[in-house]
Amino acid sequence: MTAAGDAPLVTVLGASGYLGSVLTARLAAQPVRLRAVARRPTPVPRHAAAIEVHTADLTAPGALAPAVADADIVLHLGKHSGGWRDAERDPDSERINVGVMRDLVTVLRARRPAGPPPVVVFAATTSQIGLPPDHPMDGSEPDRPETAYDQQKLAAEQLLKTATTEGVLRGISLRLPTVFGRSPLSPVPDQGVVSTMVRRALAGQPLTMWHDGTVKRDLVYVEDAADAFTAAMRHPTGLAGRHWLVGTGRHDTLGEVFRTVADAVAARTGRPPVPVTSVQPPQDAPVIDFLSTTVNPAPFRTASGWSARTGLRDAVDRTVAALLDGSGATGKEPSVRT
């Protein structure tokens, strides 16, 4: 652990990813020592010369220990790059989604810190519960994961909780809903539904839904999601040992979201808004796509002081501007370091 008066050493696992790159940029402006760890080249802010960039495949034997050596805080955002669909068919997904957490616990167990155990904040997902209830989730729901990806995320979370009980670390699991949007803090693209619809609208194509548009989602702007991790790492005493749901509590209908996208693109381009229409869903469409997923963020807000600050239209406007810019960044864009 750090000596008294030293800035804490924060290690970000998955720093080159969509959310990880924004989180790394956020941390670069805070009074911490920062280590960005990823398998690919990592985008970091130009003003953050003190960042230590560590390039490694964390599934390789012996790679994790130096990546987290002496870290006071580990923010674990690493996951299989293919997401939930590839987890069903790629045997490597378990090694990444669960194995890295297993190795992290082993590495930290071997440490003998003089002070409190290190804090580990893990990026989990609200879909770990399985099919969502018909009311906002608050974290008290039983877990019945439906997909291999959700089962793997839950297994990693359980390893974290057990290690917390054993005093190996102070683990905090943040279950995230849909994180979306582009930020000037990172050039890493968002491949999610909102940015996909922005790209369609910019191309003049209609925005299509597999339902009547009344399905609700809790959509968290990527910068707000990054801020949830910094809030969690500052409040380990009240948060450790549990999972917490991150959300806006806004519960936008997808019809409203898509119309917001169409209007925002029209405002930026001067063209009429593209139509928003319903189409026949494919036969293999997951049932969860037709169910509302909403979050009650009050427990996490009360315990950490975090709340989502970016409204839907503002987040969409930022995303449209980034995609029109072409690079997804402004003059403050990150450079890429290896």
How much of the sequence is in beta strands?
15-25%
Kindly report the average pLDDT value: 89
**CATH hierarchy: architecture of the domain at 9-187 and 220-250 and 294-309:** 3-Layer(aba) Sandwich
Number of helices: 11
Q: Give me the CATH superfamily of the domain at 9-187 and 220-250 and 294-309.
A: NAD(P)-binding Rossmann-like Domain
**How are the strands of the largest sheet arranged?**
4-2-1-5-6-7-12
List low-confidence stretches.
Answer: 1-5, 327-338
The largest sheet, given as strand count, sense and whether it forms a barrel, is:
7 strands, parallel
CATH topology of the domain at 9-187 and 220-250 and 294-309: Rossmann fold
Structural class: alpha/beta
- DSSP helix fraction: 25-40%
Summarize the helix and strand pattern as letters.
EHEEEHEHHEHEEHEEEHHEEHEHHE
CATH class term of the domain at 9-187 and 220-250 and 294-309: Alpha Beta
Protein name: NAD-dependent epimerase/dehydratase
InterPro entries: Epimerase_deHydtase, Lipid_A_modif_metabolic_enz, NAD(P)-bd_dom_sf
Biased composition (Basic and acidic residues): 135-147
Organism: Streptomyces xiamenensis
Give a verbal description of the structure.
- This is NAD-dependent epimerase/dehydratase.
- Pfam families: Epimerase.
- Residues 128-149 are annotated as: Disordered.
- Residues 135-147 have a biased composition (Basic and acidic residues).
- With 338 residues, the chain is α/β, with parallel strands linked by helices.
- The chain has a domain at 9-187 and 220-250 and 294-309: Rossmann fold, CATH 3.40.50.720.
- The chain is 36% helix and 17% strand.
- The chain has a seven-stranded parallel β-sheet, sandwiched between helices. The protein has a two-stranded antiparallel ribbon with strand order 3-15.
- β6 (119-125), α5 and β7 form a beta-alpha-beta unit.
- α6 (193-202) packs across α11 (312-325) and α9 packs across α11.
- Residues 1-5 and 327-338 have low confidence and may be disordered.
